[in-house]
Structure formats: C-alpha cells, structure tokens
Protein 1
Amino acid sequence: MGRPADAGVRDSREAASLGEAERARILAKSALFAPPAARTADGRRDLVGLSREELAAALAEIGEKPFRAKQLWHWIYHQGATDFATMTSIARPLQARLAEHFIVGRPEIATEQTSRDETRKWLFRFRDGQEAETVYIPDRREDRGAVCISSQVGCTLSCRFCHTGTQALVRNLGPAEIVGQFMAARDRYSEWPSPKGETPRLLSTIVLMGMGEPLYNYDNVARAMRIVMDNEGIALSRRRITLSTSGVVPMMDRCGEELGVNLAISLHAVTDDLRDELVPLNRKYPIRELIAACRRYPAASNARRITFEYIMLDGINDSEAEARALVRLIAGLPAKVNLIPFNPWPGSSYKPSTPRNLEKFANIVMEAGFSSPIRTPRGRDILAACGQLRTEGRRQRGIPVGAEPVA
Ligand code: SAH
Ligand code: SF4
C-alpha cells in the first residue's frame, strides 16, 4: 500500500537500532547488581576470572613481564594449581612476590551433598557471604557428566514454578565466581590437569541452568565462558556449553554472535496467555519474537540443535493439543525438546504431570521428528529443585530467605 521501496530496509534498520538500545538498557540494569571486587580482605587480588589481557596488566602493575601471564594461565587453568609455591616453572622469589599480591581463589564449600544416584550438589559461598548452587550430574553409562552452574544469586524474574524465582535478585556473580564453581567442582573430582582434546572428562559439559538468568548477567557470563573455552586452559569447546534462557531476546543475538554456545530456551507454554503467567518475561518478549530469535541464532544447526525446555505441569500445559501446538511452533527449527518433570518444592502450587501424560506428550513430539527425552529426575533425595538448597541452608541458620537487601 504505497510503501516506498526502501521501507523494509528502513524497518529492519530501525529494529536493529531498537535492539541495540534495548541491549544497552539491559546491560546498564545488570551493572546495578555488579559483584564486589574479587579481592581478599587484606587486598590481594584473585587471579581467577581475569582475561589473559587483564592478567598481563595485573602482572605489569607489580613490575613483571607480560609473558608471565601465559605461564600463570597454564598453572591456573590447565594444572588447576591454587598455591603459587607449587608452580615449579616459576622461581621461588617470584612465587613469593605473587603470593604477596595475588591469590588463586575458589568459592568456599558451604555444603556438599551426594545423592544415591551420584548426583552431587554444592552450595558455594563467596567472599561476601553470598551463596549459589552448583550441581554435577554424571552420565550413568559413560565417564562424563554435566556441571550445572549458577549465574546470579536469586533472579529478577519470577517464573511461577521455580523456587529461585521466589528469591529476590541479590546480585550478579562475577567471572571468578562463575568459573570458580566449575573449578571447585573439578577439584572435588581431582580432574586436573585439564584433559586435552577428546580425552574423556568426568566434568565434560557446562550447562548454565542453575540459579539466575544468564542473559541478565551477560558480561560476566561471557567473560567466564571465554576463560573456560580458552584452548590453553580448561579448553572446553563451545559445543560443550549450553546456556539456558527464559527468553531475553535482544541478548540471544549477541550470545550467538560472540560466544556461539548451544542455546536452551525455557519455553514451558505454547500460548502467550499461559506463558505470560508461567514465565512473566513473556509479556516483554512474546513467543513469536522468541521463536524468531531462535530461527536466526547463528550457532544452531542440525548438528547443534536448540533445546526447548518444557516443564510438565499436571493439567496446566501437558495436554495432547499442546504437544501438537508445540510441534507446529518449532517446525523447521533444528531443535530438540527436553521434557522436565516438575520438581515440587514447599509452597509450590503445581503438581507434576502423570507418567501417562508425560509419555503421550513425548510421543507426539517424537513422532513429529524431534528428539524428546524426558529428563529423569536426579538427586531427588538432595533437594534438586533449583534454588532450594540455598533456602534450606539459610533457614537452618535462621536467615530470612525472601526479599533481601541489594548488596
Ligand atoms: N534462568 C534460566 C536458567 C536457569 S532456570 C532459565 O530460566 O532458563 C533453568 C531451568 O530450571 C528452567 O528451564 C526450568 O525448567 C528449571 N526449573 C526451575 N524450577 C524447576 C522445578 N521446580 N522443577 C523442575 N525444573 C525446574
Ligand atoms: Fe529465573 Fe530461570 Fe527460575 Fe525463571 S526459571 S525464575 S528465569 S532462574
């Protein structure tokens, strides 16, 4: 209808600059919840979490040559050393100088529980006393497993089925705290030095699926993932990292371009009405926009499919009609569907779907050509519902768990 020929181009440019403005707004808000400086009470700086360039700059500040950064990087991320005195390629006087100015930190283990099925869950405590959860889920058949990492203490979003969503966001985790969860888990399985190439690893994948919304803490998550992916250190390929988001559309584009990790989308509903209720962020980024962002996600291919997470809630989102609608929604996408049995927590208002409904739902999705594994509940005996361990620990110590002051 009389639109000038370049209207489409202009529209997409406008959309792109709107996306830029939205990203800037998200990053500015995220900065309000910045983690404290990664330093000990006596002023020593934690070297974990620094990029290679920052490490070289930190060494330059104490008058050391930048090539030392490469050496230290190897000790920290390949060998897993935490004590400068064990870094044998570094002369003793320099070891002592490094120890005066720096540390190689780890979060403190507040609690560690191992389930009967070998799932292990930690509550890690950081320098300011804040805590977050990490879970290791070993593969039963092979020597490998996934480490589920937290990105924030609490969450600003309040998905109705999620226990973390009942906890106000306290703060973002910093790069040292994000990488530190993985490194501390590796310590517990003595998996150092970092296995090279295709050598089997017990801790073989990272899923950013713990507490918090990783795309609302993008900068710190990206810095941490770059460290984890660095070839001369932990050297985990981007194919072995999956970032789960409730659907922060503008940041999905950036994540795909800059990190290229696998993407998991917490979909949970096929209509905006229901998703608005279950995942309130949907009111801002509705299903249509979310799926469009998945379609343009650069790292997705048939070999690297996008995972759609779908939590199965009895009588809420688990009908056969919804299974068929789900299949239509993701048609043509390189995708798989992860059906998650709801893990109830004290005070939650939903019930898990019946095994029969789960199976019917899974079959419809599978017949449409999508892999649709039902995620077997793991670690039920150790409060596996995300966010619960932190609450339980605080309750036992008499600390209020609801809205907390911003640190
Ligand atoms: N904020 C991000 C990542 C952390 S939540 C996101 O929402 O994707 C990761 C997953 O935890 C969500 O997909 C959700 O499916 C799952 N989850 C949250 N509460 C749960 C519960 N009570 N039972 C089972 N899975 C739950
Ligand atoms: Fe936050 Fe994810 Fe829980 Fe939603 S499901 S409240 S986004 S941690």
Note: Residues 89 and 208 are 34 Å apart (CA to CA).
Protein 2
Amino acid sequence: MSRPNLKDHSVESLRERFAAEGIAPYRADQVAAWLYARGVEDLGAMTDLGRDLRERLAGEWATRALDVETAQTSRDGTVKAALRAEDGALVEAVLIPEEERTTLCVSTQVGCPLACSFCATGALGFTRNLRTAEIVDQVCRMRELLPPGRRLSNLVFMGMGEPLLNAAAVVEACRILVHPKAFALAPRRVTVSTVGLVPAIEPLLRAVPVNLAVSLHATTDAVRDELVPLNRRFPLEVLLGELRRLDCVTRQRPVFFEYTLIAGVNDSRADARRLAPLLRGIPAKLNLIPMNAHPDSSLAAPSEERIDGFLREVAASGLRVTLRRSRGPDIQAACGQLALRPPARRQGAAAPSLQGAVSEGR
Ligand code: SAH
C-alpha cells in the first residue's frame, strides 16, 4: 500500500501519533494549520517545522487523497465535481453558494448499499467506504473551486453514501472540520445526515458537537419500507423513539428531518397532518425537498400547488418547516442525483419545474 496520509488523522490523533514517534505534539497543530487553514500540501513548504522534520515527514507521509476529475458549474452557481481517489474510485461533491452562506455537500461512501428507491446514488450499489483523508480532501479540493471572495461557511454530509455506515471516518473528519487550527467551522454549521441507522446515532452525537439530519420521507411504515428499505430493520417507532430518548437532542440542537416530497407517494393531506403528532416530543425542524428527477427513477415531484398545500398544512400544525429548492438541477447536482453520470447523459434529465429555482430554508 501507499504511505499513510496525514489527513486521515484529527489533530488530536496526530498529536498522539507524533508523540509516540518522538516528535513534539505541537507539531501536529502546525501541520494542521498548513494543510487546512492555509491549504498547503507540500511538506517541504511548511517552513516553521524545521528542515529535518520537514524531510522526515515528507519521506513518511502523503498529504493528498483526491484529484479533481471533472467540475461543472450550474447556471445558479452551484459547482459539482467528480473527484478521483488513488484507487481510481470516483465520488461527487457539490458546492452551493447562497446569499448568506456557502455550503459544501460531501460524500462518505463510493456508492451506497441502502438502495433507497428514489435516490440515484442508491441505484449505483456500494463499492467502499471513504477514508477520513478522502472526506477531508473533498473540502480541500472544492475550496480551491470557490469563487473569489467566498469562504466555506457550512458543510453537510449529504452527498453519496450513508455517513453512519462509515461513522469512524466521519467522526474523525468532523473533528478536523471544527478544530480551530484546521478548518475551524462552527460545529453547528456541520450537519451529518442519516436514513436512520439507529445504533450509530447516539455515539455520533456524543463524539462530535455537529447537527443531525434524519431522512424521514414518510409518515407510515408501509410507505417508508418502500422508500427506505432500512426502515424494515429500524421502523419509525424505533427511530423516533430513540430520538425522543436522547438528551443530547435539544431545542438548541434539534433534529433536521428531511422529507422528499414525491407525487402520489407521500404528499397527501393525511401525510401532512400526521407529521406533527409523529414528531411530537422531538425538538425538530422539518425540511421539505421536492423529488429531484433522475434517469433511474420514474418518481416525480408533486405540482407546485400540491407542494404549497403540503407546506401550509404542516406549518399550520406548529412544526418548524422550510421548503428547500433544488440547486444545480441542470448539472444533476441536486439531492439524490449524485450518480457520476457522464455529461452527455445529463442533458434534459433535470426536472423542468425546478430549473433555476432558488434555495430556501436550511
Ligand atoms: N444517506 C444519507 C446521506 C445522503 S443525504 C441520507 O439519506 O440521509 C441526501 C438527501 O437527499 C437525503 O435526505 C435523501 O433522502 C435525499 N434524496 C435522495 N434522493 C432524492 C431525490 N431524488 N430527490 C430529492 N431528495 C433526494
């Protein structure tokens, strides 16, 4: 195998590793400042390390895990890139510039094993988990594609894969994201999204102070079993019961429920009315996402009137709810569209009603 990568380690873990190798632990902080705060990967250029240490580290460690294979910019400014790992695996990351923030959406797995029926990544099947360095390097590469004057403000683990099936690497990446010497993101600007892998939720929330998003998508087990096959193992009562039980879920740290609205599947008035009672007792915000069309699914978004009606019904029930508009639909960069399609196949695949729409909420 190739050399170990410095980006596989949080600052805390690198300090320990350095100490064990007879290197002063504070050197880990210096290395992190170069790699993440300054975006320098050439160990030879890390001048405050001293020449001997620079040479030693350069002989033992790698600092890069991904290269940009292709990058496309949407009419709305969203940038989607395919990034190539050392073994040739490709993953996608999406940069979403908005008025008041710039959000990066990163992947955690090559493909995904959970096969949610409406998700393009699910149709790819599963290849492997990403390493911490490969998660963190999505931030490094995408940051280099930021328009001048833009800073990364938010990060969501909502790209390809199920983060909680790769929890150890995700937690280590979160530590790097929030460390003041590294990316220094505010912890509440980092959100990990899961379909509801129940046993992995509490350990994640206890390990790192980030937000939790849960992909809900249905108000009955019958419908959720069809959309999210993992629901058969962790049905609604078990998932929501766990969230109700956790004392680390509070009004200051609510759960962000994601609800993809799919015409004729989960968009009825009855669904809208069931949501508030279903989520009672859980500090929550609900995010509605109209289904983004893609070639692997015949499912579609409801009409504008129906989306509007659903939103109003939920809001009237007292739940905090927002509607998220798709970003980058013309380049298949929206939620559930990440599937590494070559550009030629993307033409005309986006849902016309969502073209150019702006993002609200979140
Ligand atoms: N596996 C995790 C992380 C991915 S997040 C999870 O599912 O939570 C990606 C979000 O986009 C999820 O909420 C997912 O349900 C949603 N999504 C998937 N396919 C979609 C589609 N075609 N249209 C709109 N949203 C979709």
Note: The CA atoms of residues 10 and 176 lie 5 Å apart.
Protein 3
Amino acid sequence: MKTIFKPLFTLATASMMLASCGGPSADSHSSKSASHSGGALSGSMAEKAFVAPGEHDEYYAFISGGFSGQLAVYGLPSGRLFRVIPVFSQDPEKGYGYNEETKPMLMTSHGMIPWGDSHHPDISQTNGELDGRWVFINENNTPRVARISLTSFETEEILEIPNSAGNHSSTFVTENTEYIVAGTRFSIPIPQKDMPISEYKGNFKGALSFISIDPEEGHMDIAFQIIMPGFNFDLAHPGRGKSHGWFFFSSYNTEESNTLMEVNASQNDKDFITAINWKKIEEYIAKGAGKKMPANYAHNTWNDATHTAETVMEKEVLVINPEEVPGAIYFLPTPKSPHGCDVDPTGEYIIGNGKLAAAMTVHSFSKMIKAIDDKAFDGDAYGIPILNFEAINYGTLEQPGLGPLHTEFDTRGNAYTTFFISSEVVKWNVESLEVLDRHPVYYSVGHLMIPGGNSRKPFDKYLVAMNKITKDRYLPTGPEVCQSAQLFDISGDKLELILDFPTIGEPHYAAGCPAELLADKSQKIFKLDENKHPYAVHNEAETKVVREGNEIHISMSMIRSHFSPDNIEGVRVGDKVYFHVTNLEQDYDVPHGISMIGAQTSELLIMPGRTETFIWEPKQVGVWPFYCTDFCSALHQEMQGYVRVSAAGSTTPLTYTLDDEVPGTEEEL
Ligand code: RUQ
Ligand code: CUA
C-alpha cells in the first residue's frame, strides 16, 4: 500500500489510518492504477482544460507561493503561469527588493527582511462579491500583510503586525472589504519581555488584529487588536449575509502547552472556534474602549507618483482586552484541533475542520445567536463564555475522510473539503450532511479554491486542489520534486479531474476570479508626464550626470534601442554611482532592462514611463559595459553603453555623450 502522509500526523493518527474510513482505496493513491481519474486523461477531459494557442483563459488564479513569499498568477482552465508577483521576497528578475525604489517595501521593525512565507490570498469584495480591486496576502514569519493592485499586478502596501508571531489566520476580507485580519499562530508575551518559556500558560497571549481598509485607496491600518488567551490561532473566516459583522477564528492548543506540541496540544477533546462580533467592538471603541499601547512596526507604502516606496514606523496600536467588550466574543467548542474554519455563502453554516477528528463539525449561526440570547454557556475561559456545543451545533459529518483541512462552497448548497491524510476532495451537501462524491488527489492536499469561494457568489465551474506532495507524478528533479495544483470541473454531479500542473513554491492557498473582472482594466503603461520620481527624465534632453562628492547621479533614459547617455567618463574607483533610469516608452509591453558589470544587485526591469535606480560601486579601473537585459527590439543587442572608471583621485573630467554630440560636462557640486 502506498500511503502518503506527513510525520506531523503520525502520533495522533496512526490508529486512524488503520480504521476503515470510507476514504479512497489504497490503490487509488497510485497514479498508475487510479481508475477513477484515469492514469492518462481521456480526450474529453483534456479538452475541458485545453485553451487553444492564442485564446485566453476564463479565470485568473492567484496562487500563493508559500515559502517562496510570492504570489503567482495562472490562467484557468489551462494552468498556464503568467506572472510571479513579488510580495515578501526579493525578486531579481524584476528588481523588486533590490532597486532603491522597492527596498522600503521589505522594511520591518527587525530591519530589511528579504524573504517571507506567504499563505492566504483573498480578493477584495463589495456587497459580498469579488470586486477585483486588490488581492491581499499574509506573511507568517515576520508578521505582515500585503495589498497588491489588480490593475498593475504589483505590491502597493505592506503592513507589519506588532504583538503577533506567525501570522497565519490571515488575510480573509469581509463583505465590503471593511477589514482583513491577522490572527497570531504563536502566542507570545505581550508586550514582549524576557521570561521563562515554562511560564507560558496564562502569561502568553494571542493577538487577533483587525486591519481596516480604506474604501477608496485601499490603505491598511490596524484598527484594533484583541488580546486573547495564549492559544494558537490557525485560520479565520468572516461571516457573510446574516453573519456579516462577525469573524470566526479556529484555534488549537487551548491546552496552552509549550513543548512537545504534537502530543501536548492534542489533549483536549474540543478546542475552540472564536466568534468575534466586530461591529459590536466598533461600538465599544466609539465609546472609548481599548487603550493605545506603545508599539513599533513598519508601514510601507508605494507612491504611484514618485514610483517609490516609503516606510513609516508606526508607534502605537489600539489593544482591546476581552473583558472590556462583553457580549462581543464567544468560544464555540469544536473537536479536535480545528484547522480550517469556513463559512458557507449564506453565512449560516460555520464549518470546523478538526484535523485530528474523524468527523467534521458544522455549527449554525442562528443557533449560535439563540444560544447567546439564552445564555447557553458551559462556563468560560479567561472570562470569555464557552457556548454549549449542543446548542450551537447543526450537525456532524461522520467519517468523511481523514485529516480534514479546508472547505469551499458552490452556489448549489454543496461544500468541498480537502483531506490531507486520505489525500482526497470530498463533496457533500451542507444541509443534508450527506457525502455526494469523493475524488483522490495526488497527494496530501492542503487548501482548495473555487473562484469567489470566499464570497457570497462563488463561480462554481472549477475547483483547484493544492497538493503538498507529488512523488511519482512528474519527472524527478533531484531530491525535491515540484508541488502541484489539480483542476477539477465541478459543474456536474461528479468531481472530474481535468488537469495537473506544477506550481511555484508551495501552492498554499489561492484566490480566483473571472477573467473579465480584471483583464480590461489591466495597466498598460505609466504616463511619463505624470512621473514625479525626483530623478525622472521626460526626454533625452533632460538626461545628465552629476557628481556630488564621491556620489555620481546618472539620470539616464532608455528607448528602443539606446540608452542616453551611452558613454560616461570620469567615474573613479571609490565612487558610488547611482543609475536613475527612466523608460521613455509609452507603448504597451515595452519594458527595458539594465544591468552593470559588477553591480552587487539585480538588474532593473523598467516598465514604460517608470524610473528605477540601482547603485554601482566600481572596484576596478577600466572601461565597463552595461546593457539592456530584456529583448526589446531587433536592435536589442545594440542597446548598450560604457562607463570609464579611472583610479581614485584621477582628474579625468566627468563627461557623457550620446552619438558624438558635444559631450555634456557637469561641474562638481
Ligand atoms: S493553512 S494547508 Cu497555512 Cu492555510 Cu491549511
Ligand atoms: Cu531595451 Cu533590450
């Protein structure tokens, strides 16, 4: 039997693995004998995923890169990769995090961090439907959230989250993009201090941050943080429709243990989903609840006019103690270390995927409200009422599979849940709690995504399953093989697997939307006459080279197919040379690149109308070339230039030319 599962689950689930659970047969784990999917796709299935050369896809899929820190853009149903949007990690291909303009995007209270671990993208909504303005995504390791423009497909803002560690339950937008959230995975001392780890229990706290989104510009701000008991907060989901105004967070380690977590955090029969009435908290805040706490966190914003990011260090955050907001926070007991916490499109059903449970728990929002009114409590934890399980529970899906992780929904009342251990997607009806279909995936699926699946209006034609392990599915590439996504057609009664495609990094989670929501408004150029970069040039006449002590600022332009200037003399060893380069093109899809021999940074890849900067510190005397790195025209290979570097202290005058014109000469400032 070929069974794929991760050591994470060995202790708690070895016995579950042995029980017959109605999961797929051992055989169906093998690609070679998988009769359900067909080892080779049949012709009609292949047709469903086929997008003819020159045709466009029906959907965009934004698949997180997991530990790559980025967000990749694919088309569905083809699975074709269009672009990797750099978010939390440097990207030398695009100069992101390397050029002077974008370096501030990666600034944090710990300094500049070149890498991140991105998990959960989510597209902005209006009235509970995707509006295609922005996609948000979280970073776990050094807690941050990012906002990416779905016009320019670039990261526009990154906000660090203080009092947080392992920002996992994030981002997840509310119905009108009022908030995204950031729930801490690790509880920590708040404020941080030097203390024994063994005193975790009762002393460490878990912050749940609500980040408000400006409705016009999208700017992010931490509206408030709720300082919760020291649990591990895992996933989150906003209410919608009738439950709009509430947010639900799953948690594990309600035991509050701090060592050998795989055993000690799995003791309690039930952990909690935390239900937070954020509208009520807003009312409390309006009446003065909460207090400003000193903090230090980076807020990095892209300026569209200057084409430059800037960092502001924020100095305080509003924190709320649960005791200050009675009636706004409740615990929903949920078996057993719930991971995914998902709300159906009607807002009535709250699904807790107890990753160590053999059953899935469905809570009812209306029963929850009634239980609150009836005060159907089973005590409290740290003063927060624990609702009676029977009073809130809608029902249980018995033995649907092993290791349920995440659930998404269609418009027909069905839910689709991933099972990590039994490697399958199970379709079930939310109201009747009946399993309708199941399909193996290859292998160890984490999240799944239906475009719009986090909104009131899912587009339920396709489902993407994102797999952690692929083993024998692709050509081997050394010790690490790719991770993958698998595309299902869910328009019929049965799940139909129609495509397998490898992904960038770990395809952790994804957001998708119909192509027509974005395609028409996709940005084509940046207008040159609106370029307010301090070193921008708007034509070749404005190009210049200026010495300021041992700094040299080259204001250079690029257009098919030359740089201006293309020859520069009078640079000396020990100088710090700034290349400020403007792409004068005003045509769609004509970026130019530039790189300089020996520059200890990446290339610049400059979009039409934009200005970018890199620094070169020549170490050696000589005549050194630079060139365009992006094949831009038939004369791309001619797009080049030289810098003459003289010895330190040399008196070679600073001159620069294009086309044997009279050399420009700059006085030393
Ligand atoms: S979590 S694989 Cu990082 Cu989204 Cu469940
Ligand atoms: Cu410009 Cu190649």
Note: The pocket of dinuclear copper ion (ligand 2) is lined by residues 561, 592, 628, 630-632, 636, 639 (CB under 6 Å).
Protein 4
Amino acid sequence: MENDYILVRQTSQLQGSVRVSGAKNSVLKLMAASILIPGVTRLSNVPDIADVRLMQQVLEALGVEVSWPASDSVQMDATNLTSHKAPYELVVRMRASTAVLGPLAARAGAATVALPGGCAIGARKVDMHISGLEALGAQCKIEHGYIEVAVPETGLQGAEVMLEFPSVGATENLIMAAVGAQGTTVIINAAREPEIADLIDFLISAGVTIKGRGTTRLEIEGVQTSKLTTEVEHKVVGDRIEAGTFLVAGALVGGPITVEGFNPEHLAVVLKKLREAGAELEINTDSATITREGAIKATTIQTLPYPGFPTDMQAQFMALMSVAEGASVITENVYENRFMFADEIARMGADIRIEGHHALVKGVAQLSGAPVVSPDLRGGAALVLAGLVANGETQIAGVHHIDRGYEQFCEKLRSLGARIERFS
Ligand code: UD1
C-alpha cells in the first residue's frame, strides 16, 4: 500500500530463527517459463510478494490460468495462450516482466512486450535480450514503446551467442527462447546466478537437455515446446538475498539468530564479508547462525556478477558499514547508479561520500532515528536494518518497495525480537 509506513525502534537484542521464502528472482522467471509448458506448472516455496502478484497479472493477460492451491504454491495452466502482448501498465511496474519475451517467442512465435523504461537504479537496458533473440533468427523492432518480436515461419534457429556482460535477464530470456529453437544454442559468458541454475533445473525436469548448469557456457538443445512434459512440479530455491538481509540484521544487533531455508553456498562472499566485519557464523547445509560480540569492523566490498558480491546486498552492507569502526569503500560495478540509499541513511547521521561508482563510508558511533523514504526494494530493507540500531524511532515510508520482494518482513523481524510495527 502506497501510504503504509514502518516504525522501527532501537532494538537491543535479536534472537531466534527465521525461515526465508523462495527466491523472488527465481520464481518470477519460473512463472514466465510456464509459458513454454503446454499444460500445467506447479511451483512450491513461492513467496507471496507484490512482484509475484504482478507476474500473475502479466501471465493472465497472455491467457495463462493462474491459481494458488496453497498460500506458498502457485499453479499455471498455459495450455491455451490467447495473447502475446504484455501490456505497458504491468511492465512499467516490474522490469522482470521482460522475462516473458523469450518463452513467448519460443512458444507463440511472437512477443509484444512494453519497454520497461527508466528505472531508479540506472538505465537497465534490454539491448542484450534483443540481440540474443536476433541471433536466434527473430526479428525485433521497437515501436510505440513496445518491443515487438516476430519469429519467421521457419522458426528460431540455434546459434552461438556471446554476451558482452553476464546479464541475468538476458541469459534467462535466451535460455527460454533456445528451448523453442531448432538445434543447439550455446551461450558464452552466461550469468551463473543460482536462480539461473534453478530455471535450468526446472527446464530439465520439463524435458529439455541443457549442459553447463552453473557455468558461463550453456548449451541448450531445442525441442518443440509441444513435446515438453505437460505437468511440471518444482520447488523454488531459497532466497539468498532475503537470507543475507536477515544475517546483516544479526551482524548489526548481535544475535544469535539462525536463518533457515537457503543454501549458504549461494551467499559465500557475503558470509566471508560478514566474518571480516566481525561476525561469527556457523554454517549448515540449509541454514546459517550469526552472532557478533566485538565491534563491527570496516570492510571493503565491490559488487560483481555471481559468484561475486551481489549488488542486491550492497545497501544492507552499507548500513552495516555506516556503524563500523573505521572507513570502508563500497564499489558498485553492476549498476551505474545504485547509491540512492546513501542519501537516506545520511539523514540518520551516516557519513558517506559518493564518488562515481565508489562510496566512502566512515563509520559513526551511533545512528539517530529519523523519518526516511525507501528509495527502492533493497534500500528500503536496509533502512529498516539501520533503524534497528539507530537511537529513538525511525519511520520508513515507501513500504510498497519492500513489499515487492520481502514476504512478511516486519512479522519475521518481530519474531526475532525487533521492535517494529507497520501502519496504514
Ligand atoms: C537481475 C535481478 C536484480 C539484480 C540483477 C543483477 C531479477 C528479477 N532481478 O536483474 O535483482 O540486481 O539481476 O544481479 O532477477 N544490461 C544492459 N543490457 C541488457 C541487460 C542488462 O546494459 O540487455 C545492464 C543493466 O543495465 C545493468 C546490468 O546490465 O546495469 C545488470 O543487469 P542484469 O544482470 O540484466 O539484471 P536484471 O536481470 O535486470
């Protein structure tokens, strides 16, 4: 809700355990991939977040029947597609809607998807999505604010595609388009985020042959989508970014808190950096426990494609570094403009200087509670974390950003002992 706000009071202790939901960045692509399946796709471990509800609307606009058999599972029946157009009103609200481009091209032979347009965190272009589809033989043009993809009568043809940058979205769109191409598609310099591996697992269980899972070179054997399995079930991988967010809360306040429901290997660099920052971690196969007794220490980070430090954890780490002993440098390499959070946390007394894509964070002894506004999804979550250690009260507006990607964020933090409330 646009006018909701969150009130956080300084919290002296967090303890207990919290379970993360399925990954936002995986479920959205899996839902898009259901377009390829000439039958029913059932996903479990689905987070009930605003972006999932938006993707549901995008799919419904295409004729996919979407239902929720349980609160954490969603079912898509894509037997009959009735449209290949993803309308502007939906795409403009969620860039990930562009994930329907590849599967629509493969299954329907055409896709008309609104250009996502400007975004608070940088230009976020779709050039690599388009050139990748063109390499497979699709004709693409941009007209009246829409990307129009047309597949020739002869169909998509497998090809070798080299990405200039390991874009997550372009890799996923290409994988899904390649499923409907004739012959083999090879993607070189592919992104290898765990959510991409999750998409590959899903497609393999639907009957696609894909080699190179988890590597930068993927080989996809095209099949006619009509030959894919007509009933596919899949459990969404745990959300490593949600897990990282709670772990930073533990590092800020102290812990011990246990975060469950994710694979700690997916967060290896973040865990390493949390240790450098003075936290102690105990790692299990699907959980991690964090405690911190000594001071928070300054640590330098730079964001990079996986397995590097995730850009989606940058703001949360900036909140941690803003109360560290000493100065740290945070370098953002994935987006050209993702430091809006710095201006907001400065209102709480943080000392941050931005120069180009570097942020120099000088730790302060104490943040002070203030009214602030979520600049975006992760920045909003990071403001909540900062509020836990700021004296007095922090009032965070723009909660709809947080709702896009965190399920029950306040409730989960409150279950750990956070003094947090949400108001409408
Ligand atoms: C995905 C994630 C997002 C995360 C990002 C990077 C989802 C729904 N979102 O976004 O949370 O922050 O990966 O890990 O999964 N670019 C181009 N041309 C293109 C495509 C991308 O220039 O055709 C640029 C973008 O402007 C951006 C960078 O590449 O600066 C990374 O984008 P990309 O990896 O594609 O991220 P998304 O898939 O949009």
Note: Residues 240-253 form the longest helix (14 residues).
